[in-house]
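Let us work through a complete example step by step.
Step 1: write down the sequence.
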Amino acid sequence: MASIAIDEGRIVAIGSNSSMPNADKIIDARGLVVIPGGIDAHVHIGQPWEGTNRPVYYEEDVQSGTRQDGTGQEVYVETTPHYLYLEDKDMEKRGPWVKCSPPLRDKDRVLRIRRLLAQEHVDTLRSDHSPFRKEEVEAAMDNTWKAEAGMPGIETILPLLINGVSEGWVSLNRVVACLCENPSRIYDDWVTETRSEDGKPMHGLNGDILVWNPVTKRRHELTSMGIRVNAETLKKQLEISGQLDFLKLPYHQGIINSELPLSIGGGIGQSRTYMLLLRKAQLGEVSVTVWPKILKEICAKKNIHVLE
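Step 2: predict the structure and record it as tokens.
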């Protein structure tokens, strides 16, 4: 057991009470578990399931896989609580309430995935939160094939994992690594130097917030976390991605020669958010800028009014 000192949201010391710096506030957390904030890296908020990610449920998926794909990109392994707890027999009992994709497998597969998690073959844990209205699920009780695949998960992921710690098939350290430490390392900016668990030098990735746009009927990006550019980081990102030839382009030259203003950090795009809240189909309906004539003509034919 140890004490933790936190200053402005960051852990600054871990150790005995006597080694802690003076504090403005002391919280007695004896008998409790203190962990970093969890990062749920895969949720569906108000959008249809799109099936773009494939969680691990076969042991062979991990054993035959590598940490890089054919293009040299880093590959990470993730799984979800429903593949750590539910099995195909639960589909027979609960029908569409536990329908997910990939589908549930037998008890032996559940136990295999638990072992892979405990043996550090899994990088991240996420909820794959994809809920549907009660009436939508109940309408498919007579025919599970009519139900959409997905179930709630944001509220249950941490309690289920802590229950796994209590039952002894996963350690608290593994939960923290897969729910807190690894996602924060993986979904970081490109130029932050990190290391994998086996000591290999790595760099982070950019994580964006995507939601479903009911007007365009497609995913809608609310953030632009990839824009973290000054002359130094631009060169570094292009070097990492093997695109140094881009430095000859006018925009890149403008950054390198300090002729263009820099975009600082990433965040929620105001125009993108207005577009979603006001149920608009084109960014020009909520923000004023210079749009090409052909775009305005296309929008006019679809009764989309672009601001000028």
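Step 3: interpret the result. The chain has eleven helices and eight strands.
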